[in-house]
Specification:
heterodimer; A: about 80 residues; mainly alpha; B: mainly alpha; 2 domains; binds zinc ion
């Protein structure tokens, strides 16, 4: 297979490789290819950072305050659930 | 609050510990609100989805067999509440267009050993320090612009850090589908951020 064909295969499996979800032989083959392939090294780094950013991203929108009526509705459901156990 | 703390809180809730109810509401309401806002697109809808989800959660809490699964269990209820909301809404859910792998591959320049990718320099992108608010906004926009099927997977797998199996159960798809969609979602976010880093599109938007 051509070098770029291998790069393409790596590209298709990169998330599973980084998530350690691939069988050991596939994982080994990818490792073997990446270590000698600068474009794949560069691309892998950028994807790793993307994943790290997603994990760190905390959607920090603060919901509007819970009004008394909605809170009471939830608490009634909670009390009923506890009582019926 | 991490998964272990959520498990402890779920147990306290079941045993009626004082204060557990309010802590549970505060923690999960914010999570569901954020997930639903990104999934439904409307702040008002997100508030209603959060209320409907919590109501179901409390009604059915005794059915939660394994307190360790409280996070995926709550998210499954939230996902269903989101779907119901969208069906009732005037706006039909957006088409679930597929993203092809080829469209996410970076362009290449040159041949053989001199081959270069046309991508940004990612070496200065902060990875583990607290993300600056600028980056937070970019992430929110990039995730928000993904087609729905990809957005759901990246929010559950990477943002909420649920497992592949848990995500598959929440979304009623196979684990292979979760893996495929997650990869494309990440690649699409990567491509989007890459363009930002290179300053492409900045003037256009
Ligand atoms: Zn390569």
């Amino acid at each position: 297979m051509s070098a770029s064909g291998q790069c393409r295969e790596v590209f298709a499996l990169l998330s599973q490789y980084l998530d350690v979800e691939l069988p050991p032989d596939a994982c080994g083959a990818i490792e073997e290819h990446i270590k000698d392939c600068p474009p794949c090294i560069e691309f892998t780094e950028s994807l790793k950072k993307t994943i790290a950013l997603c994990r760190q991203y905390s959607p920090g929108e603060i919901p509007p305050e819970l009004n008394e009526q909605s809170r009471a509705e939830l608490e009634r459901a909670y009390r009923r659930m506890l009582a019926s156990r | 609050m991490d998964r272990a703390a959520e498990t402890a809180l779920a147990r306290q809730l079941l045993s009626g510990t004082t204060g557990a109810f309010d802590r549970f509401v505060q923690h999960f309401r914010s999570k569901i609100f954020n997930y639903s806002w990104l999934m439904c697109g409307q702040r008002e809808d997100a508030e209603e989805v959060a209320q409907e989800t919590l109501l179901r959660v409390f009604e059915r809490f005794a059915e939660l067999r394994d307190p360790e699964r409280v996070r995926p269990w709550v998210f499954r209820i939230a996902k269903n509440a989101c779907l119901t909301k969208r069906r009732r809404s005037l706006f039909a859910p957006s088409a679930n267009e597929e993203i092809s792998l080829d469209s996410l591959m970076p362009a290449r320049n040159g041949e053989g050993g001199a081959m270069k990718l046309e991508i940004a320099d990612w070496s200065h992108v902060p990875e583990d320090q607290a993300m600056r608010s600028q980056m937070q906004r970019e992430m929110r926009r990039a995730i928000g612009e993904l087609p729905e099927i990809y957005r759901a997977v990246i929010l559950l797998r990477d943002v909420e850090e649920l497992t592949t199996g848990e995500t598959a159960q929440i979304l009623d798809v196979t684990e292979d589908v979760v893996k495929t969609r997650l990869h494309r979602a990440r690649l699409a976010v990567r491509k989007d951020l890459d363009a930002r880093l290179r300053g492409v599109l900045v003037e256009a938007k």
